[in-house]
Amino acid sequence: QNILVKDLYKKEFADGDQITVSGWIRTIRGSKRVGFIELNDGSFFKNVQVVITSDMENYAEVVKFPISTTIKVVGELALTPKAQQPFEIHATEVIEEGASDADYPLQKKAHSYEFMRTIAHLRPRTNTFYSVFRIRSLASFAIHEYLQKNDFVYVHTPIITSSDAEGAGEMFQVTTLDMNNVPKTDDGKIDYNEDFFRKETNLTVSGQLEVEPFALAFRNVYTFGPTFRAENSHTGRHASEFWMIEPELAFADLQDEMNCSEELLKYVINYVMDHAKEELDFLNENVDNTLIDRLKATAGETFAHVSYTDAIDILEKATDVEFEVKPYWGLDLDSEHERYLSEQVYKKPVFITDYPKDFKAFYMRANDDGKTVAAADLLVPEIGELIGGSQREERLEKLEKRMSELDMNEDDYKWYLELRKYGGTVHSGFGIGFERLIMYITGMENIRDVIAYPRTPGNAEF
Ligand code: 4AD
Ligand code: MG
């Protein structure tokens, strides 16, 4: 009977059942007569212990198998209720399915995360990365489940686009032009008419502009896909390619948008706590021993709210901290400010609302004070900014005015403006940085360790 290790742990088996499992050797040790293999078959976080003895014809060969050899084990299940693992397999036969060289880089000793990044193709075979990537998969599913249950329609927005949603100019250009012989127009500019799309294009920094039109047809929508930023940030929280969840809600203001994001986060955290118990226990023990307490707290508490103006006031008056960058009204919050607010002041996730319009995107709705916009960033302990959201400017004249202040080419966004012309409505949305969410849920401190193959400045290996 071919079985999965997951089922060994979750289904009823009897002492003496004949079973076959296939997997990879995680550890192996043995003497002349008896040996022990910790076998992982990928189906479950935990290993199964395989006992081998010299009764086996090829025992001498098997006991020397290097770590990570792929084997098939035929044997008998032995229930061992008093031992650490409730059962083991007494092998009658071990067949090598895929040999492993003795220089397999993941030997027993602990390796640094830096080293692991150089073997991104092998690191999912470790407990830490197995846990991270399984949780990443579960979180992704939970996000879809929550949104679908709440009638959000999933829209697949384009990766290649000609708009710059965030206006930060941090875009990777997409071109088929010959860089050694760039065609120029008469006035010396690059002639994009010669390029593949006959216009300047880039990898998307956000699917928001393209998902908004669907909110005005389906009411509640979302996009969830890869986004790209050519931002030269060398931190543990920035990647050049990352995934973003961007829900957009029609007939919803800033408060509705914040409520939705809070509920969604709690749903995902609860889902992962329900479905990845072994992984979370492992991470809590080995990566961050405050993890489970923090997740339980987040799932159970009401997030804090404070306006940017009040937050600056708090930061300016803070006496228990020496900031590298002095905060003042008009300055975008630095990560040290964000962490101070969420970790020292509120000690839980906190929405900062109504930021100065000067460092926020053009589409955010102007507040009556003329200085701030209806924006809300969610800051969380350990990470800083996890979510960026806002109410969108639905008033055509105000939006046009803001775009011209920012020197944007109205022709390029004609379609976006038309949403305000043909039946516009109050609407709002937000973007969750998926990797930052996974950092929050796993306790991992570097974004490079929650993406399968991280892309950061100077690094696009694999
Ligand atoms: O705050 P941002 O730039 O907001 C937007 O892109 C909006 N269009 C979202 C919306 O309202 N639909 O990005 C949203 C989130 C950030 O809060 C952060 O978590 C994450 O995306 N993020 C990054 N994550 C990793 N690496 C980067 N370089 C990131 N830049 C933003
Ligand atoms: Mg932001």
UniProtKB/TrEMBL annotation:
<dbReference type="GO" id="GO:0005737">
    <property type="term" value="C:cytoplasm"/>
</dbReference>
<dbReference type="Pfam" id="PF00152">
    <property type="entry name" value="tRNA-synt_2"/>
</dbReference>
<dbReference type="InterPro" id="IPR004522">
    <property type="entry name" value="Asn-tRNA-ligase"/>
</dbReference>
<protein>
    <recommendedName>
        <fullName>Asparagine--tRNA ligase</fullName>
        <ecNumber>6.1.1.22</ecNumber>
    </recommendedName>
</protein>
<keyword id="KW-0963">Cytoplasm</keyword>
<dbReference type="GO" id="GO:0140096">
    <property type="term" value="F:catalytic activity, acting on a protein"/>
</dbReference>
<dbReference type="GO" id="GO:0006421">
    <property type="term" value="P:asparaginyl-tRNA aminoacylation"/>
</dbReference>
<dbReference type="InterPro" id="IPR004365">
    <property type="entry name" value="NA-bd_OB_tRNA"/>
</dbReference>
<feature type="domain" description="Aminoacyl-transfer RNA synthetases class-II family profile">
    <location>
        <begin position="133"/>
        <end position="454"/>
    </location>
</feature>
<dbReference type="GO" id="GO:0003676">
    <property type="term" value="F:nucleic acid binding"/>
</dbReference>
<dbReference type="GO" id="GO:0004816">
    <property type="term" value="F:asparagine-tRNA ligase activity"/>
</dbReference>
<dbReference type="InterPro" id="IPR006195">
    <property type="entry name" value="aa-tRNA-synth_II"/>
</dbReference>
<dbReference type="InterPro" id="IPR002312">
    <property type="entry name" value="Asp/Asn-tRNA-synth_IIb"/>
</dbReference>
<keyword id="KW-0030">Aminoacyl-tRNA synthetase</keyword>
<dbReference type="InterPro" id="IPR012340">
    <property type="entry name" value="NA-bd_OB-fold"/>
</dbReference>
<keyword id="KW-0436">Ligase</keyword>
<comment type="similarity">
    <text>Belongs to the class-II aminoacyl-tRNA synthetase family.</text>
</comment>
<keyword id="KW-0648">Protein biosynthesis</keyword>
<dbReference type="InterPro" id="IPR004364">
    <property type="entry name" value="Aa-tRNA-synt_II"/>
</dbReference>
<keyword id="KW-0547">Nucleotide-binding</keyword>
<dbReference type="GO" id="GO:0005524">
    <property type="term" value="F:ATP binding"/>
</dbReference>
<dbReference type="InterPro" id="IPR045864">
    <property type="entry name" value="aa-tRNA-synth_II/BPL/LPL"/>
</dbReference>
<dbReference type="Pfam" id="PF01336">
    <property type="entry name" value="tRNA_anti-codon"/>
</dbReference>
<dbReference type="GO" id="GO:0016740">
    <property type="term" value="F:transferase activity"/>
</dbReference>
<comment type="subunit">
    <text>Homodimer.</text>
</comment>
<keyword id="KW-0067">ATP-binding</keyword>
